[in-house]
Specification:
By secondary structure, the protein is of the alpha/beta class. The protein has 6 helices and 7 strands. It has a single domain, classed as Rossmann fold. A hairpin with a 2-residue loop joins strand 6 and strand 7.
């Protein structure tokens, strides 16, 4: 979906009658893959979350004492994420940004978190995105990426199922050393067990 598509989608569903299944990725909490990395000590501040959506992953990190900037292309999503952060009593700097053209003024980060964003990009967007990450990172910056695996059933239009080879090749070509890649799940309200996913930890060279 385009920026406008995402914003129209969120605006059509974020109302008093909305149910969790109305937004297929709204689990009203952090993804368990991110929770695992945080518990293992794999997150360092400051943190940038790309494609933060409704903010629950950023809020989880803020609750654990991290300084977090979180960006999304949808102004409506950012507004809702800011509301959720206030209700949770934590501080997150939410901003409207296109991840393929992210403004370097957002900062320089020790950790970049990408939860279910990479698999939404086509080839040209992916190249622009990985190039843009260099403007907000430095050698040694960590990248935590959770994306839909090619072991998952055929996904909805716009979501790419990612192979291990594809991820390693894309990240390596963009200057990221893949430290670890493990099988994980992408939680969804409509799927109690979650969809198969890859959980990647990489480091910028």
């Amino acid at each position: 979906m385009t920026q406008n598509d995402f914003d129209v989608f969120y605006r059509s569903r974020l109302n008093d009658s909305a149910r969790p299944q109305d937004i297929p990725w709204d689990i009203a909490g952090p993804q368990r893959g991110l929770v695992a990395i945080q518990d293992e000590g794999g997150i360092r501040s400051p943190v940038l979350e790309i494609g933060c959506g409704l903010g629950d992953n950023a809020i989880h990190l803020a609750r654990h004492g991290h300084r977090v900037v979180a960006v999304d292309v949808s102004p409506t999503a950012v507004e809702e994420a800011s509301l959720r952060a206030r209700e949770a009593g934590v501080s997150v700097d939410f901003r409207v940004e296109d991840a393929t053209r992210i403004d370097v003024s957002v900062g320089d980060f020790a950790t970049v978190v990408d939860i279910a964003h990479f698999h939404c990009l086509d080839d040209s967007e992916r190249s622009l995105y990985l190039e843009a990450l260099h403007g907000v990172s430095h050698p040694g910056t960590r990248l935590v990426l959770l994306g839909l695996s090619d072991r998952a059933p055929e996904s909805a239009p716009g979501l790419r199922r990612l192979s291990e080879h594809e991820l390693r090749t894309s990240l390596s070509a963009a200057g990221w050393w893949v430290r670890s890649m493990r099988t994980s799940v992408l939680d969804a309200p409509s799927s109690a067990g979650g969809d198969p996913a890859w959980l990647v930890e990489a480091e910028r060279l």
